[in-house]
Design brief:
The chain is mainly beta. The chain has 5 helices and 50 strands.
């Protein structure tokens, strides 16, 4: 779970085309808009910006409530004296035409063709050239108060590269051309969805609560966002695609061509993994894995993403082998009482019906459930009883005792559901409660740090709060940590599943320290942890764990690798998961972990070397390794070496490299990405790991484009992303430091791609 981010609506002009234009200076902005309410402040129905900090805009209610104004950077071209201006009365579905004319230093505002206000600018008019940007919603790109973006409906929006007269403005009609007047840019939503009619502003992308409805652009405010990159059709990149086309009629040529180009771009992307699960397209942010379950021979996995034009949805994939994934229609999205679906879990009941538990965003606040009866689980229906757990404020449910004293429990990020003795159980997270009462200086110990709340139901519709699920221990976690994205399942006693061990595993995150877990006993509707461990140590890039139990009794988890490259919104994709891990209980009562054995089916062209002795400071390249798509297995006797391990994604001169090694003195597994490339988090991550007397070091390493995963002796692991910039950063080599180490066995495999594109 990450908190939703409010994004701007951006429409970027192709630079090549705008470069041929005269700078836009004298101009007219025109919009037909219907604010959803008249109390909103400081949003823009139409803005043109130079791509930096300068803008001119049709802004509503910023200086004076209920009044339109000419917005500008620092109010440089804005009249602040608005006391005599009329207040707006149209709202809801009643549209008003607002036009602002810029001519030399004169600014004139018209409402429905009548004079509204006029003033003279103290500064010269702003010019807009090759870097011009158009914004709907926020006043401008860097507006710090995007909560105040425009909320409502827009029927038509235009920019003219000349000052229009009052008569010409009054004669304009939404959706219709004006004889003798060619707009410089024009958005009409009646026939073409969200397309700019002149072709200057193309490839528009929606994020959040933005949609085309009844011939209008509808901006929902919270979470609303649309981003459009400016790619022309003749440069081999993406083509503008109609936003509205029949699901049953012919597929438009633009859709076919752009779909193929998008897939080809993905295949050529040097950072897009080939066999780690990737969100197929669109903005995989926040990207939490969710709703994992196994049924009738298939593994089902949901992924949280910000679907263009919809908002926060759960995508759905399934697999028979945990390697190759089939895409399903989205499972759930905004609607039926909520305005977006955030993190949660899954459950399959005795009758084969599957349920998703999720956090309902905005709207009817609380926890919701969705049901599918199968067999393919392509269609999900939200329960009429939603929210089955009601929030009194966002992510929190307040109770009052007989004396009127308040207590709070979390109603966010539900866990998977489980069934025991005919009753259903579910956990909810505590981040919002911690923020409200647990971080206070005088907060009682019982409200500080991580905790979960247990609910029970007899029918999946009515849920009752039982108690706090476990007691936090200060030696394991500190008071700054929350507990969200919980997953609670039994632990088997082997990587292949089999009978349960008798212990349960609670996976969760704290937002500041990432993925972690408790192992312990589950009895009498309480959890009693025996030990605690982490899966991140330097930051929170291994995030939002999700797990399932399969027919073999295996406990399998995924997590989101949150470190994404810059400019990801322009790449058409984001969101990568770590390899599915099998989790089980070791003989000593601690957690064991290893990638699932199904990944071995991707191995090709295996090679092996035995009995290599490396002297202090020696580096030995491994020949014949596909450096950006490989698996390696090493057995090492560290001997006197202070460090021993691998260098991966290395350039010829070592300018770029990622170090993976065991620090014998510190007894730590180390992932050093400080020279991993130009992008990403350059850190040294150290995970506690100690070899037993006489025990060899057994490393497994997976390199998949920008993903590197390191496992040691089935007891520890680190997974991160790196972004080498050099084309020769493909080397793999063994190294030692501080003494001689014996590499008893070195095995390598090329890994074949599994992602469809």
């Amino acid at each position: 779970m990450n908190h939703p981010v409010i994004l701007a609506i951006l429409l970027l002009a192709p630079l090549a085309e705008l470069a041929q234009l005269e700078p836009l200076q004298d101009k007219t902005l025109v919009v037909w808009a219907a604010p959803s309410n008249l109390t909103q402040r400081a949003g823009s129905a139409l803005t043109i910006e130079d791509g930096q900090t300068h803008f001119d805009a049709i802004v509503f209610g910023e200086i004076a409530p209920r009044k339109w104004m000419a917005g500008s950077d620092g109010f440089r071209r804005t009249d602040r004296e608005q006391a005599t201006w009329p207040e707006e009365t149209c709202a809801g579905r009643s549209f008003v035409q607002i036009a602002i004319v810029y001519q030399e230093r004169a600014v004139t505002i018209y409402r429905n063709g009548a004079l509204y206000a006029r003033h003279t600018m103290p500064h010269p008019p702003q010019s807009f050239g090759p870097a011009a940007v158009v914004v709907f919603g926020p006043r401008h790109l860097d507006a710090g108060d995007r909560e105040n973006s425009f909320t409502g409906r827009i029927k038509d929006a235009r920019i003219y590269d000349q000052p229009l007269s009052r008569e010409a403005i009054a004669a304009l009609e939404p959706g219709k051309p004006a004889p003798g007047l060619e707009p410089w840019a024009w958005w009409s939503f009646a026939d073409e969805g969200l397309r700019e009619k002149t072709g200057r502003f193309t490839d528009i992308r929606l994020h959040g609560d933005v949609r085309i409805e009844e011939g209008c652009l509808v901006l929902g405010g919270k979470g609303a966002g649309v981003i459009s990159t400016a790619h022309s059709a003749d440069d081999g990149r993406l083509l503008p695609v109609p936003k509205v086309w029949s699901p049953t009629g012919p597929v438009p040529d633009e859709v076919l061509r752009s779909t193929r180009l998008l897939r080809e771009r993905f295949l050529a992307d040097p950072y897009r993994p080939a066999w780690h699960f990737c969100v197929p397209e669109d903005m995989g942010m926040p990207g939490d894995p969710n709703g994992a379950f196994y049924h009738n021979g298939r593994y089902h996995l949901m992924y949280l993403y910000n679907r263009t034009g919809s908002g926060f949805c759960w995508g759905h994939v399934s697999s028979a082998d945990l390697v190759h994934w089939r895409h399903h229609p989205d499972a759930i999205g905004p609607g039926h009482g909520d305005e977006g679906c955030f993190s949660g879990g899954a459950f399959v009941d005795d009758d084969g019906a599957a349920y998703l538990s999720y956090w309902m965003l905005w709207g009817a606040k609380g926890i919701g459930l969705a049901k599918s009866a199968g067999p393919g689980f392509d269609t999900w229906t939200k329960l009429d009883a939603n929210p089955v757990i009601q929030s009194t404020e966002w992510g929190i449910t307040e109770f009052k005792d007989a004396a009127g004293r308040s207590s709070y429990i979390g109603s966010a990020d539900p866990s998977n559901i489980w069934k025991k003795d005919g009753r259903y159980f579910m956990l909810t997270g505590n981040l919002l409660v911690l923020d409200k009462v647990g971080r206070a200086a005088n907060a009682p110990l019982s409200e500080q740090g991580d905790r979960l709340y247990l609910f029970a139901s007899d029918d999946l519709k009515t849920w009752n709060y039982l108690d706090v699920f476990y007691e936090r221990r200060a030696e394991w976690t500190d008071r700054s940590e929350d507990n969200m994205c919980p997953s609670f399942l039994p632990l088997p006693s082997s990587p292949d599943g089999g009978p349960p061990s008798g212990k349960h595993l609670l996976l969760f995150i704290s937002h500041n320290k990432g993925c972690q877990y408790y192992v312990g006993d589950y009895r009498e509707d309480r959890f009693f942890p025996d030990n605690h461990g982490r899966m991140t140590w330097v930051d929170n890039t291994f995030f939002a764990p999700e797990a399932l139990m399969d027919a073999q009794g295996r406990h399998i988890m995924w997590a989101w690798l949150t470190d994404n490259p810059s400019g990801e919104e322009e790449k058409g994709w984001s969101g990568v998961y770590g390899l599915p891990r099998s989790l089980w209980l070791g003989d000593d009562g601690t957690l064991r972990m290893a990638p699932v054995k199904e990944l071995e089916t991707l191995r090709r062209h295996g090679k092996s070397t035995r009995d290599l002795a490396l002297a202090d400071g020696e580096t030995t390249p491994i020949a014949g390794v596909v450096g950006d798509s490989c698996e390696l297995a090493l057995e090492i006797e560290p001997g006197a070496a202070r460090r021993c391990g691998l260098k991966v994604r290395s350039s010829g001169g070592g300018e770029e490299q990622t170090l993976l090694y065991y620090d014998t003195a510190a007894r730590e597994l180390v992932f050093d990405s400080t020279r991993g490339g130009r992008e990403g988090r350059k850190v040294v991550e150290r995970a506690p790991f100690a070899l037993k007397p006489g025990e060899p070091l057994k490393l497994r390493v997976f390199v998949d484009k920008s993903v590197v995963e390191l496992y040691a002796n089935d007891r520890q692991a680190i997974a991160r992303r790196v972004y080498p910039a050099r084309p020769d950063s493909l080397g793999v080599s063994l190294f030692t430091h501080g003494g001689v180490a014996q590499f008893r066995s070195v095995q390598t495999w090329e890994m074949m791609p599994a992602n469809p594109y």
